[in-house]
Design brief:
mainly alpha
């Protein structure tokens, strides 16, 4: 019971992070499951089975709010499903000893990406036109493979790529990626079922993750208004990096002063990323405050404009009258 409560807290924490960032449910939950001693393939399989429920709820919510571009979903979901099925099959075919460093390396890379991504503002390219299949299909294939083999990665790979393209609204990017993840999670679960059998799924773990995620969903919607995603992304990225660095150091049999030096370097990089994230957040808030002040000044300027326009008209009226009376006076005199 104590372990199930811990796993429920893992699901709750992962959903809180995902709700605030729009990504990283799989990364956070898989990392914490590996720390708890769950085998890599079983961890990824359980996370993806739980994600079927969480992504279904998220997809329905996004659809009801009009945040889904179904053409993008159709073009990215099928390649993503193929990639995730292949990744699940690959991860199921290798031993636990080989899978642990592989999965830790993918999670470490994605955690480092989160550090870099959230330590600076994302600049979108203002490109015109619609996203094409020749871009979406390879993106879905790669993101799906990484997602299954790393226990997460669909959001961190697909969402930034679509945001940077500048061809979709951010809300539709997140909504379309979350909706298509339902298909990706289902395909990965089928791949793990074929590769591991039903015993590969830790059903109590799945239930605990799902319950924790469903409890956290409304809290995450509130949390996103309180905790800045810019800072939270950098903090979570550092946690993922340090946690998986431990697995990689153990796999490499690196002893002596090496682990201490590596942890110190990673800790310094983590601190620098958080500082940069705070600075980027402050710059963004100052820019937003400037824009809001300019917009607030527009009604006052618009109200003053008719008064300023009426003053020249009133001043010109006597001149026009004087100009018209002069010919009239001349005519009377004549």
């Amino acid at each position: 019971m104590r372990k199930l409560l811990v796993l429920a807290l893992v699901g709750l924490l992962a959903q809180l992070v995902d709700g605030a960032l729009g990504m990283a449910y799989g990364l956070t939950s898989s990392t914490l499951l590996l720390v708890a001693g769950v085998a890599p393939a079983a961890a990824s399989a359980s996370v993806h089975l739980a994600e079927i429920g969480t992504t279904l709820a998220a997809g329905v919510s996004h659809w009801r709010f009009g945040n889904v571009d179904w053409k993008v979903v159709g073009r990215i979901a099928l390649p993503g499903a193929i990639g995730s099925f292949a990744g699940a099959t690959f991860l199921s075919s290798i031993s636990t000893e080989s899978a642990a460093p592989w999965m830790a390396a993918i999670l470490f890379t994605l955690g480092a990406y989160l550090l870099i991504r959230f330590s600076r503002p994302l600049r979108a390219n203002r490109a015109a036109g619609r996203l094409r299949s020749r871009f979406l299909a390879p993106l879905g294939l790669v993101a799906g493979f990484v997602d299954a083999t790393g226990g997460g990665g669909w959001g961190p790979v697909a969402t930034p790529a679509l945001l940077v393209s500048g061809r979709m609204e951010p809300r539709k990017v997140i909504g379309s990626v979350d909706t298509s993840e339902f298909v990706v999670a289902g395909a990965a679960s089928i791949g793990f079922l074929i590769g591991l059998g039903s015993e590969g799924f830790l059903l109590p773990t799945v239930a605990a993750l799902l319950i924790g995620g469903l409890i956290a969903a409304p809290i995450a919607a509130w949390l996103v208004r309180i905790v800045p995603a810019q800072v939270l992304g950098a903090v979570i990225g550092g946690v993922i990096v340090l946690t998986n660095a431990r697995t990689l150091l153990r796999a490499g049999d690196l002893g002596g002063p090496v682990p201490a030096v590596v942890y110190a370097a990673l800790g310094a990089g983590w601190l620098a990323a958080v500082v940069l994230a705070v600075r980027a957040l402050r710059r963004a808030r100052r820019a937003r405050a400037t824009v809001d002040a300019a917009l607030a000044a527009l009604p006052a300027a618009a109200a003053a404009a008719p008064t300023a326009a009426a003053a020249p008209t009133a001043a010109a009226a006597p001149l026009a009258g004087a100009g018209e009376s002069r010919p009239l006076a001349t005519a009377v005199e004549g």
